[in-house]
Every structure is written in C-alpha cells, then in structure tokens.
Amino acid sequence: MSTKTLDEPARRFEELLGPGSVITDPVRLRTYECDGLTHHRVTPGVVVLPESAEQVAAVVRICNEYGLPFVARGAGTGLSGGALPRADGVLVVTSKMRRILSVDLPNRRATVEPGVTNLAITEAVRDLGRYYAPDPSSQQVCTIGGNVAENSGGAHCLKYGFTVNHVVGLEIVTPDGDIVELSDIDPGYDLLGAFIGSEGTLGIATKVVVRLSRLPEAVTTLLAAFEDIERGGQAVSAIIGGGIVPAAIEMMDALAVEAAEAAVACAYPEGAGAVLIVELDGPAEEVAYQFGEVTRLCEESGAFEIRVADDPAERAAIWRGRKSAFAAVGRISPAYIVQDGVVPRTALGGVLASIDALSREYGIRVANVFHAGDGNLHPLVLFDDAEPGAEERAEIVSGRILDLCIEHGGSITGEHGVGVDKSRYMPKMFSDDDLNTMQLVRCAFDPRGLSNPGKIFPTPRLCGEVPGVRKGAHPLVESGQAEHF
C-alpha cells in the first residue's frame, strides 16, 4: 500500500486522537522500525498513540474500514520481532496508557493499563507487602501489555511461573474493534489463556488484571563460582534433584561474565568458568534449611567461592550482572543475536557441549546465559558485522542451536516468542495439521487477518482457505467459510 493510500486514514486518526498522537513524519517513524531484535527493520506507515480503550477500538475500526493491517507495540523491548511494524499499516503504540487503575488488596489483584511497566506494579504495592512476580530482565522498561502478548517469564519463573499464571482478567479490543472482557472464571473455553502469549495476533489488550503475590518472609541470594560450566550444571541437578525449588536459579558462562564485568563491573569471582545465582524465598526457617543444603551441594559440586546476600542492596549487586547480560555483550562484540530455546534440564550438559562445538566449528563466539532450573537457554551469538560472512555464520549457529533444542525434546522459545524471527522453525516442531489448527483459532478471532499479520506462522493462510493437507476438516473449512468457524 502506498503512502498516499494512508493519507485519508491518517487524517481520520488525527481527528480522533489529535495531531500530537499521530506520527507520519518519515524521520520520526524510524524510531519505531524495530524492537529489541534489531536485525529486523520495517518503517511503519503510520504510528498512533491512543490514550484509552475506546480510542484503541476506534483506531481498529478505522483500520478495518480501509483494510489496513495493524500491530500493537509497548516499549519495543521484545526479542523476536513480534512488534515489527508494517510499511503498509498502522502501529498502535500503548505507551500513553500507563495508569495503575486500582489495587484490590483483599483479593490480591491490581488493574493496570497496558503501557504500565512491569516493575512499576511492584513499586506501587511493595509498601503494602505485595509484589508482581514475573520479572523479565527488562522489567524496568518493558510493559505489561507486551508481557501479556509474549507470555513473559523472567528469572523467577521456575517457582512462580509465567505471565499466564499471574493474569486473571483482560479487557481487549478484538481485531474488528469490539471491546471485550476475558476472565479466568469465564465458563467454557479458556479464551484468556488463548490470548496470553498470542503475540498480538488475536487483538490488543487495553486493561490487565494481575495477581499480586505476598512478599516472602525471608529472601536469601547466593552466588557460587565454578571452574567450568559442567560443575555448575552438576550443582543445578543436585539442587533440583534434592527436592529444592529455588525462586530462581540462573547460570552464566565465562564469556557472559566477561561482558557483564565490562558493562556494569559486577565484580563476580575472578577465574570463574561459570557462576550460578540461586535465590531462595519463603518462610524464614524453610529458607535457612534450604540455604544450608544449597551451599553444601554447590561445594560438593566443586564451587570454589560462594557469596551470600541477605539484604536488598547485596541482592541487587549479585543480580546486576545477570540482569544486564543481554545488553552487556555489546561491550565485547559489535553485533550479536539473542536466542531463546528450551531443553529438558537433564539435557543441559550435552546441549551446552554441542553449542561449544558449533562455536568452534564456525568461528563464532557464543555467550551462554540461562534459566538453569527449567532449561531455558539464552545463547548470545556474537559476531562482527563488518567481517564478510560473519553474520551468515552467526545465523547458521543460531538456527542450529534451535535444532539442538528440538532434537532434545525441547522448544524453539521459552519466553521471547516466535514473532518473525522464529516462524520458519515452527514446521520443525509442529505438523501441517497442528499449524492449520492453530490458524483456525486465529481466524476465529481475526477473520480478515489484520491483527499483527506475518507473525508466528511461516506460511500464513487466508481465513477460509482450505489447507493443503487436512484430514477430517471441519465442514465450514471445506465449504470455504472458516471465517465463521
């Protein structure tokens, strides 16, 4: 669609939102051309910044009127290209919708707008003895609307789960512009669960009701340093095998530690081939017992230094290196690819060894940072984009890491989503029938395919199109009326 074709809807958006909330200037539009995964870039046709659910709904209805694709965007911290805009469409930015609307302490919930940052929820209720558990590394800036779209997790997801475990209700604008409420107590199909993690393909969240957790009585964080990642992995297996479920258990290899030191001077133990961060929380007596066990198991696995933090400042110092890891590798590499895959915890050692072999085979360094407790890997594939062929080799290594995850019974994503970056890997995990069934769900929400098109599926099909390979297809599909299915 040409820019001129967007002129009339842009005028409509200005009448609706005011000229200050509509961006058409080519230079300003480039601000929104990518998310945190910067090697995918598209300049949006128009950017709108609504301030209410009613305005979002009106924008979506105008998009439907003109057949314009639209993409929702929060803070743009995503790492799979999930919020990549369309040059022929509208980018709906929710950054102005950042109010905490209510806190219901007796029922342990808060209602917030999608532009509220993840950490802002905890900051608003900490003095009330509550907090919001999911904590992505970007929690200071990422928005709750984006967390809902990607089903974000974070370091503490081992014990506390992902966004889907902490959202009890949503107000959404459907792809045809209706405002609908979804709740965890709705009878019938779990539409709330279907929406969370749908990456903006089923509509736009305009209000989010989150579950608040009680601040634990005691929290202890320890950092254990090992000569190599194998010994650190042994400690992880011993801790989980011993029946202990830490709030978080994170590992970084030597290259990731080097990057963190260069970026934030985290002062982790010198000579560590791997560091393990273990956080324990809960009743004071339970935490004291678990701390003794974790310390013993780390020492038996070969830890040469263990540091302990009991107060918030000391804990923040230990976490500083881990939380900065993704951005920190920019200090030791001109360019990098952030990957996200999952393997069974028992396969961690073998997969990490295979990643090291790939690194040596292709001459591409890989820094490993991961949620060790649940096998969620975040390899950082480092390369020099000024070196001929380096980016291509890095892409090969990145893809083969995902192949390793699948081969070991894991997944191509744990919390970063599929977006555009990993859609080509979906057929490696799912059959044609699986993918067609998923797309029928999407068609039920979005029959015109306007809501964040081109994401998740490698070969998106039009709603109503009969899949090439399906057995026992629903009669409405075979009659070409899947848009009513």
Largest sheet: 8 strands, antiparallel
Rg, Å, rounded: 23 Å
In total, how many domains does the architecture comprise? 5
By CATH, the topology of the largest domain is Uridine Diphospho-n-acetylenolpyruvylglucosamine Reductase, domain 3
CATH class of the largest domain: Alpha Beta
Q: Give the helix level as a range of percent.
A: 25-40%
Named at the architecture level, the CATH assignment of the largest domain is: 2-Layer Sandwich
Name the poorly predicted regions.
469-485
Q: Beta fraction of the residues?
A: 15-25%
Shape: globular
Class computed from helices, strands and strand pairing: alpha+beta
Write the layout of secondary structure elements.
Elements: H1 7-17, E1 22-23, H2 26-29, E2 46-48, H3 53-66, E3 70-73, E4 90-93, E5 100-104, E6 109-112, H4 118-125, E7 130-131, H5 144-150, H6 157-160, E8 167-173, E9 179-183, H7 191-195, E10 204-211, E11 213-214, E12 218-226, H8 229-241, E13 248-253, H9 254-264, E14 274-282, H10 284-300, E15 305-309, H11 312-323, H12 325-328, E16 335-338, E17 341-342, H13 348-362, E18 366-371, E19 376-383, H14 390-407, H15 426-429, H16 432-445, H17 475-478
Helix pairs in contact: 1-3, 8-10, 13-14
